[in-house]
Automatic annotation (TrEMBL):
Listed EC numbers: 2.6.1.1
Signal peptide: none
Superkingdom per UniProt: Eukaryota
Note: In eukaryotes there are cytoplasmic, mitochondrial and chloroplastic isozymes.
Subunit structure of this chain's protein: Homodimer.
Protein name (database record): Aspartate aminotransferase
Domain Aminotransferase class I/classII large: 30-366
Tagged with keyword Transferase: yes
Cofactor requirement: pyridoxal 5'-phosphate
Family label: Belongs to the class-I pyridoxal-phosphate-dependent aminotransferase family.
Catalytic reactions of this protein: L-aspartate + 2-oxoglutarate = oxaloacetate + L-glutamate
Record organism: Aureobasidium pullulans (Black yeast)
Enzyme class: transferase
Amino acid sequence: ESWFAAAEYVPPDAIFALTAQYLKDPCPLKVNLGQGTYRDHTGKPWVLPSVRQAREQLLAQGLDHEYLPILGLRDFRERAAETALGSAIYSGREKLAICQSLSGTGALHLVGLLLKKCQRPLPKVYIPEPTWSNHHQVFRSLGFQCESFSYYDYERMRLDWDSYLSVLDGAEAGSIFIVHACAHNPTGCDPSKAQWREVGQIMKRRSLFLLFDAAYLGFNSGDLDEDAFAIRHFIGELKLEAAVCVSFAKNMGLYGERVGCVVMALNSHVIARNTQSTLEMLQRSEVSNPPAFGAKIASVVLGSEKQRRTWYTDLKTMSGRTREMRESLHDALIACGAPGTWDHLKQQSGMFGFLGLSPEVVTILREPSSSSHLRDAQFYSVYG
Ligand code: PLP
């Protein structure tokens, strides 16, 4: 008998399992279309010039390895919050609670813990379908009941706007909605500004709580202010309480350094002070102190006009290249005579291109030898 006889075997996470399969595959033509990590034109991870410069600056100054405070590196927290909210909203910072987190995932988990501490009975959590798969896991593991709502119209390959509105209208007051602030994963399909305004009106009228997953700010358009529109509209114009889970994994390429931040916009400075203190207690019992190195890098990048400008250029490089790739893929599919329409590819934005292929087609592309069509000479003469 073991103390852990009740532990279940949980199948590997689909995205990471796919990466493992990809690494094992000997085919020289393989392409990894799974994990959301940016690659340069040689297929290699890209260390952003802004990040490289910040790293060199830090190393030249000499780094120590002391603990950060429980809430995280102060400069980083302040600069991250200002980046997400913009300076106009950030200047009213007495109504904010800000806590450094283990990247975006850690931010979501901390906000989940906070909501659990403050809400009885636990509200329902509404999550778009499709979404980043960990949303369900993070909130279910905390005991929340998660409801998926249809976000994407698979037939017309666009936002399922009618469903979105009807779910907002039908959800119990006090429910939590997880929304992707921009660059929806995996559809690359976001509400327009007018649609965001409508979402905001309903949320306000129906007393729903909005949790922004902001994992791709700047990655959508290359312009942070543009990409943060929804966050700033809800908090700055509608004056709604909201949680913003900021990640610098993608937009600074700091994936493995786990650089993130929880920014809570609250109704009063007393609530903000108490919320921040509760976050501090929760952080203490979870990780004690967040990691320092990545936060120091991000803080340097965000800390001066010059460094920020370099970062903005990096964001344009990444978002521009993904846009070009999307367009080339679209044009190549048309040139090959691929059946159907592919305009949706050009309308999408952010890191992901949602092709809309059936599972059968995906299997054939992944394992060409499994398909008689793709085993023929013509295929290999074109792609081989
Ligand atoms: N949210 C979304 C929508 C994501 O796609 C990801 C990562 O792929 C994350 C959050 C979490 O990323 P990280 O924890 O690496 O910041």
